[in-house]
């Protein structure tokens, strides 16, 4: 028997063939076969001590990947003459049989379908006729056999709904996003125009609004709005100090003095101290 060649020998023999003489099956490299004991050389990853069998190199849990090479899958592939896929065998005989013979489809004999008896209608008719016993109902069914049609026959005989010839079935597609309008701020411009139009319409409505007659105020309405004046009493002073004027004037004019006191009264609630002239209560 001829000795089985190793994967390395097949690859070398495949490379030695001239490119012009290679067939289609020889374009791809030869199939990789599982490692054997003869393929192991000292220093390889799968070199081991002790008893070594070929079956050990067919176990993917034991086989290690060689340095710079893909891992061996421990599965043998068929040769270059093997055709992958499913082979469909022709049953028609090809072109000669198609030209010489003509297979005519033979119509199957129609089977007579027995109609289903309508027991509900027959029982209703028997009760109306005054027949109540089982014998009377049996004789009534023999004389008045009422059947119902199958649902398939009624469905097939029903005319389909009228559909316009140019009707398109399905769901309409969503319109595309207007990217140009977004980039050019068209929606902002439209919103501004709408706001201007609304403001203009409000102004025109106010302009053309009919003003009713003049409303006269009554005494009750006037008294409701009237605020009686409050007389402020002067500050109390000791009698012998009433005619003594101030010895120090810190404000240039009386108006500046009034403005300073007004500002003090406005900030009275947020300042600290007894006289409310200290720091602010808030930072």
Write a compact overview of the structure shown.
The protein is built from 9 helices and 2 strands, in the order H-H-E-H-H-E-H-H-H-H-H.
Characterise the protein shown here:
There is one protein chain. With 283 residues, the protein is mainly α. 32% of the residues lie in helices and 1% in strands. It contains nine helices and two strands. It has a two-stranded antiparallel sheet with strand order 1-2. The two termini are 106 Å apart.
Tally the beta strands: 2
The biggest beta sheet reads: 2 strands, antiparallel
Distance between the termini: 106 Å
- Give me the side-by-side strand order of the main sheet: 1-2
The residue ranges in which pLDDT falls below 50 over 5 or more consecutive positions are: none
- Tally of alpha and pi helices: 9
| Share in β-strands | under 5%
Radius of gyration: 56 Å
What's the helical proportion of residues?
Answer: 25-40%
Which class do the helix and strand fractions yield?
mainly alpha
The coarse overall form would be flat
Order of helices and strands: HHEHHEHHHHH
Report the mean per-residue pLDDT as an integer: 77
Q: Can you lay out the helices and strands and say which pair or pack?
A:
Elements: H1 7-16, H2 94-100, E1 116-117, H3 119-128, H4 134-143, E2 147-148, H5 151-157, H6 179-183, H7 186-207, H8 219-225, H9 254-266
Antiparallel strand pairs: 1-2
